[in-house]
Structure formats: C-alpha cells, structure tokens
Amino acid sequence: MRYVEEFRDPVAAKRVLGEIDRVTEQIGATASSPVHIMEICGGHTHAIFRYGLDKLTPDGIEFIHGPGCPVCVLPMRRIDECVQLAENPQIIFTTFGDAMRVPGTGKSLMQAKAEGADIRMVYSPLDALELARRNPDREIVFFGLGFETTTPSTALTIQQAARERATNFSVFCNHITVPPPIKALLDDPHMVLDGFVGPGHVSMVIGTKPYEFIAKDYGKPIVVAGFEPLDLLQSVLMVLVQIRDGRAEVENQYARVVPSGGNPVSLAAINDVYEPRPSFEWRGLGEIDASGLRIRDRYKAFDAEAKFSVGYGADSRPGTEPDGCACGQVMTGRIKPPACPHYGTTCTPATPLGALMVSSEGACAAYYQYGGVRAPEAAE
Ligand code: SF4
Hints:
Blueprint: H1 10-27, E1 35-41, H2 42-50, H3 53-56, E2 61-68, H4 70-73, H5 76-86, E3 91-95, H6 109-114, E4 119-121, H7 125-134, E5 139-146, H8 151-164, E6 169-175, H9 179-187, E7 195-198, H10 200-206, H11 212-216, E8 222-224, H12 229-245, E9 250-252, H13 264-273, E10 274-276, E11 279-282, E12 286-289, E13 293-295, H14 304-308, H15 327-331, H16 363-371
Parallel strand pairs: 1-2, 1-7, 3-4, 3-5, 5-6, 7-8, 8-9
Antiparallel strand pairs: 10-13, 11-12
The structure holds iron/sulfur cluster.
C-alpha cells in the first residue's frame, strides 16, 4: 500500500537506525546522560511501543511521553460532570467509545450506563445530531472531546445544527489545543526536554507555524512526524541532527500529509464556533491559560454547559484522584508507568484506575500492551 509499506521497510529502518546511532554518539549522549525527546502525541507513544522503537534506538535517547492523549489529560471533574449530565433523565448522552471507561471520582460513564443512564456510543458528532432529529422529545448532548484533530468535526456539526435550528442538541465542549501545554512543560523548571516529535494529525489542521515559539523562544527543535516506524525514526534522526548542529527549527517530516499552513476550511470552522477559555484544567498539569476552547456566544444555544448549568461557571468541584495514582507524574514525563504503585496490579486495562490505562494512546496502556507487566520494584 502506497505511503505505508515504504515506511515499514526494514532495510531502510536499519539504515536510519545506523544514522541515529552515529549522531547520538557524536552528541555524546549516553544511558547516564541521555537526550530527552518528547513525543507529544499519544498516537506516537503507541507506535513507539508497538514497533519496539524504544528498544531499537540507542540507550542515549530517552523518550518522554507527552500529554497528547485527550482522554488521558481530562481531569476527573469533567468526567464527573459528564456523569451528572448523563444521569439527567431528560438527556441522551452521546460519546466516543474510548471515554466510556475513564474513571470519574464516583463512577465512569460505563458504570453510569449500567445503573440506567441513557448513554450511547457514537462514531461522530453527526450521529448525535441525527439522534436529536429522531428524538425530538429528548435532549441530546454530545461529549465534544479531543485536540484540533476532532475539533473541526464538532464545529461543523454545531454549524449544521444551527442551520437546522435544532433545539434539542448541544455539546459538552472539552476540546483542547496542543501548543499551550507544550509551553507549560517548557516553563516547568523540573522538566528536561531537548527536543520534540510533533503531532501529525493535529498538525494537519493547524499546520506547523503554531510551533515556532518552541524553536524561537525556547531554542528546542521540533519535527512534525507521521505514524509509521520509518516516519518516527526519521523524525528522531532529524531532531538529533538539529541538536548536534546547534540548530532549533520547526521541521516537517510528515509533509506528504501536513501542509505548513494547515487546513483552512477546518481552521475557519474552529474560529467561527469556538473561542479560547481563559484557562482549562489538565490532569497532571493543572490549569493552563487559553488551552481549552468554549463555544462562542453566537452558538450558545448548543452549549451544554450553559444549557444545563454544569462545568465552568457553574458549581464545578475538583475530582479526587485515587491514592497513590501517579497519572500526573507520568503525564509530565517525570516517571515511567511501571514506577506507579498501581501499575499492573490494581491498575490494568481491564480494571483501569487512571485514564492513562484506558485509552490505547495512554502511556500506561501502551507500556502494558507492548512492554509487558513489570513489578513496581523493577520500575525505572
Ligand atoms: S498505572 Fe494507572 S494509576 Fe498509575 S499512572 Fe498509570 S493509569 Fe495512572
């Protein structure tokens, strides 16, 4: 298959790995003094473990798993608010499947459904709008969740609902944006980050320009990457070469898919429907300025927060993380998943305690699925 097989070619991968070895050595990076490269996107974390790239690359490279899994970074309180909405007998609550098992303070959406809440899994926000058309006597709320990759489809659905003058459809908006948390991580004096592998899907929408501050203001290289093994290896090599040469630039390894200016149609829909919230809470990172989106006043009729008085501006209470849960430390790359006392014991994909074990893009689930279960005492 074009654009897939050539990016899985083992001969080419071997050649790039040889180059990575050589440049890592030129930099002088070793296991005790590694280069720290953050892959921002959860899809990249998954691919790194799936293809064993963490084991194939030299010990002088340490991958730090970033906050790019939207399910994982959602704070407990937002799940609690979803449950609150779902338990309203007027409402049919619609969501993507991966959010169903994310634990809230009291229960997950899956548990709320088992207790009788009318929660339905959908494949797109348009499915939720169709449900609204077919159930005029019920309120349909769609759980809008995700980065710039999924934000446009929710925006386009809200525009469609406005055109149809739908009165029983709204969105619980939890859309978030990638650049602000990267800035927050770079501002954290405890973080050691030498370079970034930038998200591929998000960049299809926003392009590469929004990352320029990483290179210009913080002097760190970033390379937007695809999701095949060779994409990731080439991107890691490009980051290493920049570090070796003392350069800090935004480069685009995924140019076959990512236009530098992004997708103008998607960007126009986003700008029409949403505006930045003053701040938004991220699991493990706390409140980050302008990192979340809310629905603009002109589309207020489709904003579930306003319609049902939940979330920001209402009586929103912080959720409580389970004792010993290290999701926040894993999210910020301070520890690897096996260092969490719950990893592989009280927290597994079948019985997740934290969100990072739920989503396939979560670092803990990726470790568990591809790295095997290790006893906590053997953790890094
Ligand atoms: S093992 Fe579970 S509780 Fe621990 S950090 Fe991972 S998801 Fe969170």
